[in-house]
Specification:
By secondary structure, the chain is an alpha/beta fold. It is built from 8 helices and 10 strands. It has 2 domains: 136 residues, Periplasmic binding protein-like II (D-Maltodextrin-Binding Protein, domain 2, 3-Layer(aba) Sandwich), CATH 3.40.190; 76 residues, Periplasmic binding protein-like II (D-Maltodextrin-Binding Protein, domain 2). Strands 2-1-3-10-4 form a 5-stranded mixed beta sheet, with helices on both faces.
């Protein structure tokens, strides 16, 4: 019986996602056996550190990607939102299966029903900034950990913010107090989608993974990732333009001659 190995994080949600990809492959290739290589990531270990302090994306993906690059696994299953906007050298994003719900949600209470000054827990600066635009009175606190840990930390008379798809996949959707429309809270790039990576030179695995590709989902995720890349380039362009303008201004005004006072 042919065997392929899938690298994944060890959280309940990550394991569900890896098993989902495994089921898709085993359906497409009867007799195939998918084994899981569970990898511990820096983001999973350092729960005392806010995500924003890690300095960018990849904190939940790097070690999982390394397991593929060094041959311990044939492919890796990620939440697409955890992937850096540019693919790591040596890997390719071989498949994006059909996407789930991309929206954010609240557990504990509806946004409009939370009392004045209520506490909302989230580790995402994106969520904080957007929710503060709607409810400037809210008080935000940090939230880290697996889903069970997060659900245990719902503030009294407050709420936590989660990806709706996470609870839907874990059969916990009944705990969602409100799913927030995308026009009110723009989701993270790739949220709700899975990204399946493998080695860029492994044509056999690439061909296998392409059978579980969902083209509409892939197009949306690719467009969102491209937008993020472009957004990252713009501040650098603006800085370069500012420096050029500064040089031009300095170059167009000759220095005034030095005047030595006469005594």
């Amino acid at each position: 019986m042919p065997v392929v190995r899938a690298a994944t994080r060890g959280s309940s949600l990550a394991l569900w996602q890896a098993a989902h990809v495994g089921r898709l492959l085993e359906t497409a290739y009867p007799g195939l056996d998918v084994e899981f290589v569970v990898v511990d990531t820096e983001g999973d270990r350092r729960l005392d550190v806010p995500i924003s302090d890690f300095g960018g994306k990849g904190v939940f993906a790097k070690e999982v990607q390394t397991a593929v690059l060094d041959g311990r696994a044939d492919f890796a299953v990620h939440s697409a939102k955890d992937l850096p906007s540019t693919t790591v050298p040596g890997l390719t994003l071989a498949a994006v299966p059909e996407r789930g719900d991309p929206r954010d949600a609240l557990v504990g209470g509806r946004l409009g029903d939370l009392p004045l000054g209520a506490t909302v827990a989230t580790g995402s600066m994106r969520r904080r900034v957007q929710l503060a635009q709607i409810r400037p009175d809210l008080v935000f606190t940090e939230l880290r950990g697996n889903m069970a840990t997060r659900l245990s930390k719902v503030p009294a008379d407050g709420a936590i913010v989660v990806a709706a798809v996470a609870l839907q996949r874990l059969q916990l959707a009944d705990q969602l107090a409100e799913i927030i429309p995308e026009d009110d809270l723009v989701p993270q790039v790739g949220q709700g989608a899975l990204g399946v990576e493998c080695r860029a030179d492994d044509d056999v695995i690439i061909g296998m993974l392409q059978t579980i590709e969902h083209l509409p989902s892939r197009r949306r995720v690719d467009a969102e990732r491209a937008f993020l890349v472009e957004l990252g380039r713009r501040p650098r362009r603006l800085r370069r333009r500012s420096r050029r303008r500064g040089h031009q201004r300095r170059g167009s005004r000759p220095a005034a001659p030095l005047r030595v006072p006469r005594h």
